[in-house]
Amino acid sequence: MKALLDFVPLIIFFYLYKTVDPSNNHHPLLTLIGSAGGVDNNNILVATTGLIISMLVVYGALFVFQKFRLDKQQWIVLFMTVIFGGITLMLSDDFYIRLKAALLNLVFAGAFALSPFVTKDRSPLIKRMFGPVLDLTEQGWKKLNYAWAAMFVVMSGLHIFFAFLFAHGKYWGEFTAFGDMLVMFSFIIIQFVVLRKHFKTTDE
Q: Which of 39, 43, 70, 150 is the right S-S partner for 20, CB 3.0 to 4.6 Å?
């Protein structure tokens, strides 16, 4: 249920991004927030508005369901969406919402890369995530941890590529909504195939 709720804002974002006329600066969502809109990027501005509103609703619901708390990752995603989305709407400039995902992935990469040095027990972040299901040596955990950090760096580069370099950002919305999920799922599947011999048995 929690995982499905996380996808709702992305679905809303993609739907608005694809269905709103870029020249329509009188969309009800823009009127709702008092925005005059932009010139030819109103589909992004409307989609950003829908993204922020839906994330506030979804994360508000998760806050209640999770006994009035959010995970650190959820706070980071919510904070960066509201900040960069808010700047995008205030300036009617989609540069900032395009930049958000790239920076967010760099934040996650940094969290993984630095976790063995800044946590109290010097334990890699990935070990906390997969420790209950994988049996690896300390060196193995470090390698896997840095692999995840590298994956997020690659993801950040892909977001920059699709947002600013490839086809003038024409397919940025598609990659933001679905592409990074495909990259993430592919990485996880490959990881599990490579590490299949290291899964803990039920006896363990």
A: 43
